[in-house]
Amino acid sequence: MPIRLLVGLGNPGPRYADTRHNAGFWFADRLAADRGSTFRAESRFEGEVARFAAGTASCLLQKPLTFMNKSGSAVQKLAAFYRIPPAEILVVHDDLDLPAGTARLKAGGGHGGHNGLRDLHRHLGADYARLRIGIGHPGIREAVIGYVLERPGREEAMAMRQAIDAALGVVDDLVGGDWDRAVRRLHTQAVPNGEKEA
Predict the structure, then answer these.
(1) Which of 173, 170, 135, 179 is nearest to 26 (CA)?
(2) CA atoms of 17 and 27, how far apart (whole Å)
(3) Can you give the pLDDT at residue 192?
(4) Which of 69, 77, 118, 119 is least enclosed by beta carbons within 10 angstroms?
């Protein structure tokens, strides 16, 4: 199934730009820059939208500007306008359960307590695909909110950007509909401790 809409999740504004929770925005901005695409504000879709080429195909790229916990409405409106089913949507988001420097693809599943995914579930169901960008975990649940809204340290930010670079390398596979190849290539990248992960 080809990906026709790629969504980066984050919070709008300079206060949040460099925080861990904005890993999805980091990815979307890098992808647009690499492909020479320009985001345009689209109020009817509650966010910024761009289009980029991947081989002979093209794909929409969206950054919802509704704040993380209301992302679902923006994505649903854009997907409905272009008649894109959830299975052809890839959502890029930060993930506490993965170490910084790791990126993983996932088809469907639960929201794992992520507020952006929780709202997407409410508007789209659970059948959309995800690209999880690891940010690590602070160690205790009570510290999570502050942690995700903080800027990562220099080494951690570098690791996150390396994971994003690795994920950018499989975008053409995803848009071209070769999910298995994308998973195989991304998931066999070296993980932060230097080992390989299947």
Answers:
(1) 135
(2) 12
(3) 54
(4) 69
Residues shown for the chain: 198
49 in any annotated domain: yes
Distances (CA, A) of 11 to 15, 23, 67, 176: 9, 10, 5, 29
Mean pLDDT of 2-12: 97
Model-level pTM? 0.92
Tell me, yes or no, whether 194 lies in a domain: no
Answer yes or no: is 72 within a domain. Answer: yes
Mean pLDDT of the chain: 92
Domains identified in the chain, total number: 1
Q: Supply the CATH number for residue 171's domain.
A: 3.40.50.1470
Those residues with Cβ within 8 angstroms of residue 154's Cβ, 6 or more apart along the chain or in another chain:
none
Domain carrying residue 175: 5-187
Count the alpha carbons within 13 Å of 169 in the hemisphere toward its beta carbon. 16
CA–chain centroid gap for 39, Å, is 16
The predicted-structure confidence for 50-83, as pLDDT tens digits, reads as follows 999 998 899 999 999 999 999 999 999 999 999 9
Instruction: Examine residue 196 and state whether it is found in any structural domain, yes or no.
Output: no
Torsion of CA 12, 143, 96, 92, to 10 degrees: -10
Is 21 a residue of the active site?
yes
Residues 191/99, Cβ–Cβ less than 8 Å? yes
Q: 21, 93, 114, 121: which is the annotated catalytic residue?
A: 21
